[in-house]
């Protein structure tokens, strides 16, 4: 654990849906496990599920669990994914369709439970930073309650600069730290990619953690090799089987 007594933890959000948050989250978990940390990925809200062997399953949750190395993950399933909706829609719509209500307090409680078990935690948001959960709260409210530094996944396509800068402003408005950002070329290399990345580097108050090219069948291990996580993890070191501390500068 860090000197604060809490695990090394980050909230992963994106400029939009389908920009590769889960892939980057799994890659970050891989980087954590490679450091010998007991790590777990959390997906507080997931919308879109299929029935497999009598159990409803979401592919993002399955991927995050697969990239985690915390023991007894099956026992922790309800904390890893407190809210799973069958309908592939925005959370507030999916919850309404299933006549359920998303309670931020329950999510925070699940996070606290996981933080007692893990040395490192990745919390993956849903959609963009301000996706509604209900009439009064959204994903940004959850990030604010968890008080985690944020990692922004930017889908590199036309319009991404404005989306990224607006998201960064929303993160700052919640009093949160943008810890880093990833340029993800999921849809293929965009025109003037380097120019767009340079514009983002000049304007975002956080380090670029990596530029991920379009990969046909990307794996977390493959993407982890493309990430520069020194700015994120460099200050932490494993000092025992049970603790992580801040390394001396």
Notable features of this structure?
single chain, 249 residues, alpha/beta, Rossmann fold, 6-stranded parallel sheet, two-stranded parallel ribbon, 10 helices, 12 strands, globular
Summarize the topology:
Layout: E1 8-14, H1 21-34, E2 39-42, E3 45-47, E4 50-52, E5 55-57, H2 59-67, H3 77-80, E6 83-85, H4 91-97, H5 104-115, E7 120-128, H6 139-146, E8 150-155, H7 160-173, E9 178-184, H8 193-203, E10 208-212, H9 220-224, H10 230-233, E11 236-238, E12 244-246
Apparent shape: globular
Order of helices and strands: EHEEEEHHEHHEHEHEHEHHEE
Largest sheet: 6 strands, parallel
Structural class: alpha/beta
Q: Strand share of the residues?
A: 15-25%
Helix content: 25-40%
- Tally of individual domains: 1
CATH class: Alpha Beta
- Count of individual helical segments: 10
Main sheet: which strands, in order across? 2-7-1-8-9-10
Describe this protein's structure.
- There is one protein chain.
- With 249 residues, the chain is of the alpha/beta class.
- The chain has one domain: Rossmann fold (3-Layer(aba) Sandwich).
- The chain contains 10 helices and 12 strands.
- It has helices at residues 21-34, 59-67, 77-80, 91-97, 104-115, 139-146, 160-173, 193-203, 220-224, 230-233; strands at residues 8-14, 39-42, 45-47, 50-52, 55-57, 83-85, 120-128, 150-155, 178-184, 208-212, 236-238, 244-246.
- The strands form 4 sheets. It has a 6-stranded parallel β-sheet, sandwiched between helices. The chain has a two-stranded parallel sheet with strand order 3-6.
- The longest helix is centred in the first third of the chain and has 14 residues, at 21-34.
- The protein starts with 7 loop residues before the first strand and ends with a strand.
- The mean pLDDT is 92.
């Amino acid at each position: 654990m860090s000197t604060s007594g809490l695990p090394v933890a980050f909230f992963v959000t994106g400029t939009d849906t389908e920009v590769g948050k889960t892939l980057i989250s799994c890659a970050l978990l891989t980087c954590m496990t490679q450091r010998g940390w007991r790590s777990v990925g959390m997906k507080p809200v997931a919308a879109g599920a299929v029935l497999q062997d009598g159990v409803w399953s979401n592919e993002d949750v399955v991927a995050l669990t697969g990239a985690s190395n915390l023991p007894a993950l099956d026992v922790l399933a309800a904390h890893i994914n407190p809210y799973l909706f069958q309908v592939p829609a925005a959370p507030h719509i999916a919850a309404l369709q299933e006549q359920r209500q998303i309670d931020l307090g329950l999510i925070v409680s699940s996070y606290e439970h996981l933080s007692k078990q893990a040395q490192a935690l990745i919390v993956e948001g849903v959609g963009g930073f301000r996706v509604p959960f209900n009439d009064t709260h959204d994903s940004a409210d959850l990030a604010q309650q968890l008080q985690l530094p944020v990692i922004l996944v930017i889908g590199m396509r036309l319009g991404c600069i404005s989306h990224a800068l607006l998201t960064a402003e929303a993160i700052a408005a919640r009093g949160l730290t943008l810890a880093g950002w990833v340029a993800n070329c999921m849809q293929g290399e965009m025109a003037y990619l380097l120019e767009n990345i340079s514009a983002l580097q000049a304007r975002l108050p956080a380090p670029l953690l990596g530029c991920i090219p379009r990969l046909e069948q990307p794996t977390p291990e493959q993407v982890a090799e493309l990430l520069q996580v020194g700015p994120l993890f460099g200050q932490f070191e494993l000092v025992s089987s049970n603790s992580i501390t801040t390394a001396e500068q």
